[in-house]
Design goal:
This protein is an alpha/beta fold. It folds into 2 domains: 3-66; 79-277, Rossmann fold (3-Layer(aba) Sandwich). The protein has helices at residues 3-16, 22-34, 51-65, 70-74, 98-105, 121-129, 142-154, 199-202, 207-210, 218-230, 246-255; strands spanning 76-79, 82-85, 111-115, 134-139, 161-165, 179-184, 231-240, 259-265, 271-277. The strands form 2 sheets. The chain has a 7-stranded mixed beta sheet, sandwiched between helices. Strands 1-2 form a two-stranded antiparallel ribbon. The longest helix is centred in the first third of the chain and has 15 residues, at 51-65.
């Protein structure tokens, strides 16, 4: 069959399974099978596809119809213009998180701490965008850190990014270091909200990275309780939040002693990031 026919048939299968953006996903999966950039797939749609590749494409379509995320089928996800390795052990990087990246890049920074780094997409993107910056990413999951190590090395950031296993600040106890910027996308989905998530998220992404098992706010409390010990004077803390958590997380930040607390919205107008600053002034 020709590529265009395969895309049409794959799209129909995915539509029948109520997969969102079925046509887009069918094209992405065919581009993956053909090993061509998705943006150039149109050039190949009129050509006949090798039967072995056709079988591979059909298998991927069947898996996608079961709501397996595209990133798990291809092993890759584009984030802020760079490709990252993704596995079931890490959260799938999402466009909404780019709001945090944009906010972080709005001001200069040197040292960055990424709490719960997962795939490393936040830390590594910030370092790739700022040649003079360095950073540390921590994560409780050794499997997630394996993915972050792979992404770090693929981006050739070994010399500027350290990755440490442990809960939040624990790996930093023996380091006499403070950071200009601390970032985190912690588990913020309440336990009773998990059932309402899309199947791609609920059934295939690591629950420990999605939810704290409670009200979705406990991880913020842990991060804020110690943040002033690791944040440089006038340094910034940026955390991603759920769309309904802006007021509560802002209040928690103020109670922890941070100042100039601000809620930042994503491109869809939803509260997405809360920013706070260390209250102490830098020495002039």
């Amino acid at each position: 069959m020709r590529g265009a026919e395969l895309v049409a048939r794959g799209t129909a299968t995915l539509n029948a399974a109520d997969v969102p953006d079925a046509g887009r996903d069918a094209r992405r999966l065919l581009a993956h099978v053909l090993k061509v950039p998705p943006g150039r797939l149109t050039l190949f749609l009129s050509e006949e596809v090798d039967p072995h590749l056709e079988v591979a494409f059909n298998v991927l379509i069947e898996r996608r119809a079961e709501r397996v995320p595209v990133s798990h089928l291809t092993g890759r996800r584009l984030f802020y213009g760079r490709e990252f390795l993704v596995t079931p052990e890490v959260l799938d990087p999402r466009p909404e998180t780019e709001t945090l990246i944009e906010a972080a890049l709005a001001e200069p920074f040197g040292g960055v701490l990424d709490l719960g780094t997962g795939s490393g997409c936040i830390l590594l993107t910030l370092l790739a965008e700022r040649d003079s910056a360095w950073g540390i990413g921590t994560d409780l999951s050794p499997e997630a850190l394996n993915v972050a190590f792979w992404n770090r090395n693929a981006l050739k950031l070994e010399g500027r990014a350290a990755l440490e296993q442990g809960s939040w600040y624990d790996p930093l106890r023996d380091l006499d270091e403070v950071f200009d910027l601390i970032v985190s996308n912690p588990p913020y989905i309440a336990q009773d909200e998990l059932r309402d998530l899309a199947p791609e998220v609920r059934d295939y992404e690591p629950h420990m990275a999605l939810s704290d098992g409670g009200d979705g706010l406990s991880c913020y409390a842990e991060i804020f309780a110690q943040v002033l010990d690791f944040l440089a004077p006038e340094g910034r803390l940026l955390v991603e939040i759920g769309a309904s958590q802006g007021a509560e997380v802002s209040a928690m930040m103020r109670d922890a002693g941070l100042r100039q607390v601000t809620v930042i919205q994503d491109l869809d107008g939803r509260d997405r990031v809360v920013l706070g600053r260390h209250p102490a002034a830098k020495r002039r």
